[in-house]
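Worked example 2:
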Amino acid sequence: MGEEVVLRGQIGPFWEQSTPPVIAPLLKLCVGGCLAMSLMLFFERLYMGIVILFLKLFARNPHNTYKWEPIQDDLELTHFVYPMVLVQIPMYNEREVYQLSIGAACGLSWPSDRIIIQVLDDSTDPSIKDQVELECKRWASKGINIKYEIRDSRNGYKAGALKEGMKHNYVKLCDYVAIFDADFQPEPDFLWRTIPFLTNNPEIALVQARWKFVNSDACLMTRMQEMSLDYHFTVEQEVGSATYGFFGFNGTAGVWRIAALKEAGGWKDRTTVEDMDLAVRASLKGWKFVYVGDLKVKNELPSTFKAYRYQQHRWSCGPANLFKKMVVEIMRNKKVSLWKKLYLIYSFFFVRKIVAHIVTFVFYCVVLPATVLVPEVSVPKWGAVYIPSMITLLNAVGTPRSSSYLFD
């Protein structure tokens, strides 16, 4: 107890002497920087809100922006009129969901001789590997063209598995590849609603569907995740698709043109956001993306804090690392317009992937609490209350039913 009193006696005078000349100016600088970033984030949210309003008022959607016609049967060509589709399902110790995901993929409505289901199993648990392989054999016995693929090591993790899966000889027969993570279950008509965009529009590389969360009501954490991700799909993906023909691939529930995937350099494991990496590289080659918001694929949100923390760490650190690797390449690119370059650098990467995370943690968790200890520094009400409140309300537009949680 005596040592604590002595320590407080030493810290008190030091704090009082150093606050006016050192701490206060530094904190003011931090406050100014955070307020500037808050305004950047607010105007970005406001801009996207205006674009979405315009799209809704004028009924703009992918079906009247791009050519879309259902694939028609041809008596002479028979099933060859349908393109060959590869369906990839990357897995890693998926004991709870492997049957659902494989079953959903095998249930896709498409001519059986024009589709290949590829299960890429990176499981390290031998019992799970045996169960997944047995499930694949069960579907194969029903006449489904399903391949069970494993590899010697998990180099590159998911990106490595997808890259390895594209090396098999039978993949050379395929025109498109649909990707579904192990906890995703597409509806039977998924390919009928996505492939026509690719067959009718040779400039399109990717068709992305929306996620539908089957466990959003499991707890408060899943409800808040739903609100955040619904904003991403309802606003960010929609705006990117409608205005620039570009958005970040979500890594699942999408169909790629294999020629575009190869031209972009294929899968790389240089960051933890291999899906975003591939999307940016394909965009810089001049390819366009289409987001189909009314096509939903069922999946589950992380319901434990450990899984959620891992996911958020990947989503927050990966984009910043990718931005560092690609910013020069984006600026030097000559295939895309200056406007699209500015969108990629400023809006897509800097504001959404860097500024948003800095403001959320540094401003609200560090700088604002610190101003309480330094009376010489004050934060204007508009920066501490009004702007954050408006950003939060704009974030809730994708999930109106959860808006009440904003005020709890």
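The beta strands are 85-91, 115-121, 146-149, 176-179, 204-213, 254-257, 288-299. The first helix runs from residue 2 to 57.
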